[in-house]
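Work Package 3 (structural annotation) set out to generate three-dimensional models for the target panel prioritized at the project kickoff. During this period the team completed the workflow that converts sequence records into discrete structure tokens, so that structures can be stored uniformly alongside our sequence database. As a representative example, we reproduce one entry of 343 residues exactly as it appears in the project archive.
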Amino acid sequence: MSDRVISFGLVGYGLWGLHHARVIAKTPGAKLAAIAEPSEENRAKAKAAHPDVDIVADYRDLVRRTDLDVVDIAAPNRFHYEITRAALEAGKHVLLEKPMATSVAHCDEMIALARRRSLVLAIGHEMRLSALWGKVKQLIRDDAVGPPLYVLIELSRFPYRFGTDGWRFDIQRVGNWILEEPIHFFDLARWFLEGFGTPEQVYARANSKQPGHPELQDNFATIVSFTGGAFAVITETLAAFEHHVTCKVTGTRGAIWAHWSGPDARTTEPAFGLRYSDGSKIEEVKFEKRAGELFELEEEIAAMVRAVRTGAPPVCTAEDGRWSVRLCLAAQQSVDEGRPIVL
């Protein structure tokens, strides 16, 4: 494998983008060469943290550079399609934060463009790189509990941060809140059930505690039915405290129970664990690595370096990202229309 250093340009230096910048800068085989950020305040923070990196206001000035291999996009959702298209047209590989886009049509355009240019388009569903959630996947793959029949993923957390200029609370900029965080759990459920069926129907409910803003859905639940008979339940509340994720998988012979908790999703000292039973005894898994999105981001950047160097598929492909968007939009349609949506 080539040991060539992979040069990154980062678009977005908000609350999550600054972690992307920090991780890229310390990842072996990666170099942070440029950051594009429209906020003057955030540009100043980026310059203070990364004095040797070029900082620009307009992403177009970044993507036209000839010294970049990868454009890493951590901008608000509504800009994902526009920036990704510009980066791919400029011949850059792309690591794109979820959601891939706010429409399936835009996902399709991005996939087609990446294929035509033979470029890597990786989607930032970093939970696939988690020591914890990856172990759940491994147990399913190893037939530890039999073919899965039921998946439950539950999140209970404090309300969303507003984001730069309050973009996350502006439905025109965020797309919808199902695309904002539940999308991770749609991806996990589909990943866990991969090989046992494909999603065929979505039924969802949601409500809001915020007067006059029913579109800002603090409480959300959905059932995703898969061909083959399995189904997944995904549920979330943003009206609680701290950050707690629970996952249960029931197979034909046994079950898996995994949990993760912290004061917020970016804690470096989480409490997490996994137990499973094959129907005869209960096993507790011991972990050498910590789990959490900051650790998973480190794995994600390292995986992007490998994908660009080797041409191997990314951990989460653009096709995977498209599925997650499609499921979220179907869930929103189900909430709006009060009926199951057949895919």
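The chain has a mean pLDDT of 96.
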